[in-house]
């Protein structure tokens, strides 16, 4: 455990530039937008909008973080892979560190989104807070989810790089990514088999909105967005969790058995 915690400490040093970049870019954009809209009386609205937009953009935070962190390790790959720890532990250290940095960044941005949002959307403070918590958890979950796919793609890139130039490896992975996305997110996700294994555990969004005491405007927005079907399925979350766990361990196995030789 001590060895893994030491690795996490090292990852904090490696990944710090990504956290600083996310915060600095947000603050710069915040200042520019606020100054530009202040004279028109929409400064707080702009603060809320850029906070919501930048917070939603954190869907890509973990993918960018992992690409940067793995790119740093690529420069000293022999040292990183000679660590006696299993590859799953090496990758887990990066995921944990990146997640902590993402939470820090999101907390800062959430303040702006919350304060600014109160000025241009007529929800109560409590409703804003509950919506924010749900969005916060989903952004974190989806960002980690997407980053696992990126990890596998990068590990495949490292593997192919042993047999061909880096440019050709990158092109192969890029093409392979879109083929995989088409087969999995396109054909499979629209198949009867996928519906059969995911459409269980029905969750009524209207019931959830009522249970959390959302404002009527929020409940109506859910109906308008979803149409008559205001349900989501727990099966989608469970199957996706199983999928990314499988992908994570495939990536770890490739890193251990095929890249590290």
Keywords:
single chain; 261 residues; mainly alpha; two-stranded antiparallel sheet; 82% helix
Short overview:
The chain is mainly alpha-helical and 261 residues long. The chain contains eleven helices and two strands; from the N terminus they run H-H-H-H-H-H-H-H-E-H-H-E-H. The chain starts with a helix and ends with a helix.
Radius of gyration: 21 Å
- Average of per-residue pLDDT values: 82
Total number of helices? 11
Strand order of the main beta sheet, please?
Answer: 1-2
**Basic shape:** globular
Strand tally:
2
Proportion of residues in β-strands: under 5%
Low-confidence stretches are: 222-227
Structural class by sheet pairing and helices: mainly alpha
Largest sheet: 2 strands, antiparallel
Spell the H/E element sequence: HHHHHHHHEHHEH
Give the N-to-C terminal Cα separation.
25 Å
Helix coverage percent: over 70%
